[in-house]
Every structure is written in C-alpha cells, then in structure tokens.
Specification:
The chain is mainly α. It has helices at about 5-20, 30-45, 75-85, 90-95, 95-115, 120-130, 145-160, 175-210, 215-225, 240-280, 285-290, 310-315, 315-340, 345-355, 365-385, 390-400, 405-425, 430-460, 470-485, 495-505, 515-525, 545, and strands at about 50, 50-55, 65, 490-495, 510, 530-535, 555-560, 565-570. The protein contains 22 helices and eight strands. The strands form two sheets. The protein has a six-stranded mixed sheet, with helices on both faces. The chain has a two-stranded antiparallel ribbon with strand order 1-3. A hairpin with a 2-residue loop joins strand 7 (about 555-560) and strand 8 (about 565-570). It starts with a helix and ends with a strand.
Length: about 575
C-alpha cells in the first residue's frame, strides 16, 4: 500500500461522513445528545456537571448533577476539544473530531489488513469496506463512541500484529560483522518492544475504558496478548533452561507491569475523580443496572428498588428467558450489523485461513485471530449474561464496533480463498474473477450503506427528514411552554432529558418507571413543574394518564404538541 491509496481512502471516508453529517441537524438520539451536552458543559468551563438527569441509578441529590455516573466521558471530551479549538460551542464544531475519525478509519483498516495478509489489493478492498460501513455509517459522524471504539480496536490489533524488522540474510566470509550489527539492532528493537508494545496496549485499554464502561474487558485482552507473546526456544542443557525460565518469568512480569501502567496512566485520574465525587472509584450507576428485570427499570425511582433480592425474586425461569432473548437479538446484530449479512461467511473463511497459513510459524496472526474471537465472545457474554437489556438495546452494537475494522480486514481474504477454490474446482480465471467479485463486494456494501442512510437519516423524499425529528419536536414543545408562561428555570420531566436540554436550554429530568405517584415524588425532589408524555416512550404505569389527560387531580393538561401531551404538575 502506498500513500496515495491511503490518502484516497481517507478522502472517501471524509466525504461520505461529511455527506451524511449534512443531513443530521442534531445528535438524533439520547446517547449522542448526552455526549454532546457533556461536551458543551466542558467547553463552557462548567466541568463534569449536567443540568439534567436521565436516570436515578446513583440516587442523585439534585440539579446540577455530577456528570458521567453511568456513561464514560471520553466522547464528550472529544466533542469539547472541537468546540474549544474553534471557539464555537455548536453542533458543527462538536463533530469535527468525529468527522476526522471517519477519514482515519478506512486507511487504518487497510493498514491492519495489509499487516495481516500482506496483499495490497485485499488491503484496498478492506479500506473500501470501512468507507461503506453499513449500519455504522449513520452513527460515525455524531457524538457517540462508535468511531473512537473502531479507532482503538484497529490500533490494538495493529500493535498485537507488530513484527520486528527481519534481519537481512548475509553470506560469505565477511558477513560476520554485518550479522553482529544486525543482531545488535534486533536486540535493541526487541528490548524496546518489550516495553513499548505492552505500554501501548495498556494505554489503548485505558482509552477504551474511558470511552465505555465495558472497555475494561480490553485490559484483560491486553494482558492476555502480552502473556501470549511467543517465547524464545529452550536451551539444550538443564542449567541453562532454569536460567531461561527465570528470564521468561521476569519478561512476563515486566510486560504485565508496563501494560497495567499504561492503563492506569489513562484511567487513574478518572477513578480519583469518582472517588472524590461518589466516594468510590467506579460510579455507582452501573452496578444497579445488574438487577434490572425489565428495560424500563433503567429509569426506576428510587433506585433502591433495584436489588439482588428483587432480581432473584423475578424467578430463574424469567432470568434465563431474558438472557435467551438478549442472545437472540445480539446474534441477529452479529449477522446484520457486524457481518452485514453477506460478509459474515467471508469473515469466517478469512479467520480460518489466517489460522491455517500461520500454523507452525513465528507469525503472530494466530494471536490476533484468537484475541479477536475472544474479544467477541467476552463482549457477547457481557452484553447477554450480565447486561442483557442494555446489550440487546444497543450495547452490543456499540461495543462490537471495536472489532469491526478486524472483520473488514479479513473479509477480503475470505473472498480470495473462495475465488481460489473456484479457480481450482470450476476453472475460473483467478485474477479476473477476484477483480469482479471484489468490485461486487464493495458495490453491495455501498448499496447497503446507501439504503441504511436513506432510511435512517434522509427519510422519504417528501421534505420530512428522518434524523432529528425528536429535536424538532422538543423545540416546538419549548415554544409552547414559553407561550404558556413557563419560567426559564422550570424543570420538565421528559423521556430524553439531555435532548430536551439541548433543544431548550431548560433543566430536565427523566420520566421515571412507575405511575403518577412516582412522577409526583420525582417532581417534588427535583423541582419538576411540567410533564411531557410521548407515546413512543411511555411507561406502562402512565398509560392511563396519557389516555385520559383531562380531569386528573395532580396533573393539569395544557395541550398536545408534536404528538406529545403536556401537563402542569400541580404543587
């Protein structure tokens, strides 16, 4: 791969990301809203605080609230960086870093593919698959973790697959001096890699944890990677073997130490902050999510309702049923999102081929393949067994992004093996067939991406845009509240508090999972004055209030705007 191809891939990635971003006037959903709002707070100098509550899992005392008690801060830091560098606290500036990621990922995927396969044509195809990223395409230009996770995942496997420069073969009677010099250089490189590679893997694991709570799994993978590093051959005599084993143990201890050091360099400031704010190194919000028996309980109030006892009381049959449900949805995501349906067989063939070609040699590709499969299995297990509701509702989609560059990198190898089989068994002309099938694979990826972007971002060609409808609705609702004389400091109770804050600048708290009395309890504690009920995100305990808005003793119906019913919460 030469620099022109890498530049072409970067330009294609940037153009596509910018083209999609042009149809995204707002973050579009609560995760992206939250990270953008957090970036605005940081850029404005208000630190890690938020004027809204989107859940009650950490028993918040009031508003403003310490930020990132459930999600992690790196995405907001990147959004804040764009706004700080440009001096403009707006949506365009917040997305600059994410648009840059859209340009970086295709050439990085190509580089990963080339490091694994050493074929320029396959690497170029892998880079084009990263350009036309299918279901991920609408989410790369917005303030969410997808692009960061893909970046870190690709770098992780590039470091694992890093090979020291091969020694030049020398012959003849004057070769000894050259060989000694080469051996000396190789020794220096190897000693550096003993420190640098584990340190870099630890740094990446720290960054992945700072991006997502489940990123801590990548610390385990980084430690596993440094332990798996191929040892040198054993000396022939026993005394030398004893010394050899002692050296190997020291080397493993050194690698593990540097890996942990890299991780702690990134994550320790955040752990210290959590300790100062929440009294514990890990924010308390995530631990209570372990005991959900329904997805809506993510918004339970008070959060003390979520306990191991309540979870176990739901019954073993229900606990298993939920996890089987999550497994089914996550496997569907693996097929449709990660494998883009048509790529999955090629990815599996490519993984098998990497294993076969590397058998018995010094190549580290089996380690990459093993780590990729282990990372996928750990992520699936965490998002199925531990956090089934979060996993099935998008967590596996988010977390799987770290592995997507690897899948794109190996899919062209799978196609090459299929074409080679066709040449042997069916008499295909291999070079011509490979060119045709590779082009077809990229065209299918481009068509799939266009179809997804059309449906999820652009919408029907009737002037009504698909992306940003909620933000537009919230702006209309805010105009209505202002017309009704709502004070600017009045708190609203709404399904998407960070989204409403972005649309209005008004403090907001989440509609709790419960009934009218639960809403009153929330309003009393956090100063809620207005309740907004949206049919698409309505807790079942509030169905009666939504269906019968008139004549409720504690809620005065104001009207309906943008399919949402608005109430004054009676003092």
């Amino acid at each position: 791969m030469n620099w022109r191809r890498y530049l072409l891939l970067a330009l294609l990635g940037l153009v596509l990301s910018a083209g999609i971003a042009a149809f995204q006037p707002a973050p579009g959903y609560m995760d992206a809203d939250y990270y953008y709002a957090g970036g605005l707070q940081l850029a404005a100098g208000r630190g890690f605080t938020e004027p809204f509550l989107w859940n009650y899992l950490d028993d918040p005392a009031g508003l403003p609230h310490p930020a990132f008690s459930y999600w992690m801060p790196l995405t907001s830091l990147l959004a804040a960086l764009g706004m700080t560098l440009t001096g403009h606290a707006n949506w365009f500036a917040a997305r600059l870093g994410f648009l840059a990621l859209g340009a970086i990922l295709p050439p990085l995927t190509a580089a990963l593919s080339y490091s694994l396969i050493s074929r320029r044509d396959l690497a170029l195809t892998a880079g084009l698959l990263a350009v036309f990223s299918g279901f991920y395409a609408p989410y790369l230009p917005v303030t969410d973790t997808f692009g960061l996770y893909m970046l870190f995942g690709a770098l992780f496997f590039l470091i694992v697959n890093h090979k020291s420069p091969a020694l030049s073969e020398v012959e003849g009677p004057i070769a000894n001096c050259k060989s000694l010099i080469a051996d000396s250089k190789s020794s220096i490189v190897n000693r550096k890699s003993e420190i640098v590679n584990p340190l870099l893997l630890g740094l990446l694991a720290g960054l992945m944890h700072l991006a997502r709570a489940d990123g801590v799994l990548w610390l385990l993978l980084a430690l596993f990677a440094v332990i798996l590093q191929k040892p040198s051959s054993l000396p022939p005599n026993y005394a030398a073997r004893f010394t050899h084993y002692a050296v190997r143990i020291t080397q493993h201890a050194s690698r593990i130490t540097f890996c942990l050091l890299g991780y702690l360099l990134i994550i320790s400031p955040w752990l210290v902050r959590n300790l100062a704010v929440f009294g514990a190194p890990l924010a308390p919000g995530g631990s209570r999510a372990l005991w959900l028996t329904r997805y809506d309980q993510l918004f339970a109030y008070p959060a003390s309702l979520l306990t191991f006892a309540s979870w176990w009381h739901s019954g073993l049959a229900e606990i298993l049923k939920v996890r089987l449900w999550a497994l089914g949805l996550n496997l569907e995501s693996a097929l449709a999102v990660q494998g883009s349906i048509f790529l999955l067989p090629l990815i599996l063939i490519g993984l098998w081929q990497l294993r076969r070609e590397s058998r018995g040699g010094p190549c580290v590709r089996p380690t990459c393949t093993l780590l990729a499969l282990l990372a996928w299995g750990l992520t699936l297990a965490a998002m199925t067994l531990v956090f089934p509701f979060a996993g099935a509702r998008g967590g596996f989609f988010h977390s799987g992004a770290a592995l997507q560059p690897f899948w794109w990198a190996v899919a062209p190898l799978g196609l090459a093996r299929v074409v080679a089989w066709g040449a042997r068994r069916r008499g295909w002309q291999e070079k011509q067939a490979h060119t045709i099938f590779s082009a077809g694979m990229v065209v299918i990826a481009a068509l799939l991406t266009a179809w997804i972007v059309q449906g999820r971002v652009i919408g029907a060609f009737n002037g009504e845009q698909a992306w940003g409808r909620e933000a537009a609705a919230y702006s209309q609702i805010e105009e209505f509240l202002v017309e009704q004389g709502a004070p600017v400091e009045a708190v609203v109770v709404v399904a998407n508090p960070p989204g409403y804050y972005l649309a209005s600048g008004r403090p907001a708290v989440a509609v709790p999972d419960g009934d009218e009395q639960t809403v009153l309890d929330v309003a009393r504690k956090y100063g809620g004055r207005f309740l907004i009920l949206e049919q698409g995100s309505l807790p079942r305990g509030l169905a009666r209030l939504y269906d019968q808005p008139i004549g409720q003793p504690d809620f005065r119906f104001l009207g309906e705007v943008a399919a949402a019913r608005i109430y004054v919460i009676q003092p």
